[in-house]
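Table S2 (text version). Query chain:
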Amino acid sequence: MFAVDDRTRLALATFGVALILGSLGDMLLRATPWGLNVFLWTAALVVAAVALARAWNVGITGEGRWFLPLAALFAAGVAWRDSLTVASLDVIAVLVSLSLAALWGRTERVRLRGLSEYVIGGFYTGAVSAAGPLPAAVRDVQWAEVTRGRRPGQTLAVARGVTIAAPLLFVFGALFVAADAVFENIVIEVFDIDLVEIFGHLFLIGFFAWISAGLLWLFLLSREPEGFSFNRPNVLSLGIVEVGITLGLLDLLFAAFVFVQVRYLFGGAQTVVTSAGLTYAEYARRGFFELVTVTALALPVLLLAHWLLRGEERVHRRIFAGLAGAMVALLFVVVASALYRMRLYTIEFGLTELRLYTMAFMLWLSAVLLFFLPTVLAGRRDRFALGALVTGLAAIIVINAINPDALIARTNLARLDEGKRFDAVYLTNLSADAALVLYKALPEIGDRHLFDPYEGVTSSGETKTYKGPTLEQELLNNWNADGDWRTWNLSRWRADQLAGEASVE
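Corresponding structure-token output:
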């Protein structure tokens, strides 16, 4: 036996583990809708990465290592909540956490990484994952040592021959099958396989193995490249005059809007009643999304202005801090106005996913704006990126905790007691998270039909009154079904249990 260095052994081990993860991904993740399978596969990837690191004494002492348990936590959220939006946010959080763990699991200073390092590092992680096993095969595996003394010539010749013959056999075989029915039957009997299904399995195995190999290489073997941070070129810098004029004029615009619209913004129901031709819908919806857009655009403008500013003199930095702080204060008024508008609209017309998630987005932006003050304005810009990321991940955890679809169902059901409009059709189209609330409320709702009765003419010319299904019937149709264990989800399982109990009764 010839000695093979540890780096080559580790690279070869990542190939084997990646192939196992690819097979596991095909077995688990091909079943939809996703649920328990996402957690199992993510946990397997995390355990494999940590096990390889310990076996080869790879030090994962960087601050990025804490994103590994976070990835497993968010993956568990997919098996907890049934809402498609919540599950999508959880999957995004899993991908972000795995990427950061792979990128900075062995390096320090994650807390002091700038925005550009996160953005460029994200693109780098995506590129490496897309490259799969190629970086390890090219940079780390010493193929001469691996194949030395193993007579690779004949093996490689056989492999080349099979590779060349395979497409030719497929083409000529397909032509013969198409030319003769007897030959076709013989081929079908001999090769009783579903080529489409086999191709699907091979594709998924290859896809997940390829991505896993890239992530494992980045986590265990890569050397962090320099140049993630993008320093401002001098040609792009601006003085306090240019930046001050820009921010000052924006502050004046924001202040004028807030001053002129104070009574309108916070007038509430009285404003709607007293303003000619102004309805609740126009009051709440007309300005809400515009104000959301203003808030979302203002933060990048402030960050860009701070990045472009030449802050050689202390007084210049103070001027910028004053102008930026004033804009942040005005933005909080805009945020409060937008949230108040949507609250009024929700009271009048009920809660929907779009309204809830838009308000959640506004609250997250408010948290980021608040974090902007003690970091960027205080001269500690390098701490802002991690804080913004942490608040985003924390927001996803909070969204999982409040259970949006269940909150929407409870809010809209409460409208029944107030004698207000109740959209039962919308609620039955939500996830199992909402179905659990609806099942518990069935005794209060009664035999409520999803649609108002209407009259129609039958084929014989008779007039007949048609009634849609009741809320209970619709719930039973949606959730009284058996599912694959791989797609197990706590909310769906509980909804199925309640549907089964209701059907027995």
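Notes on Table S2: The chain is about 75% helix and 0% strand. Residues 1-231 form one domain.
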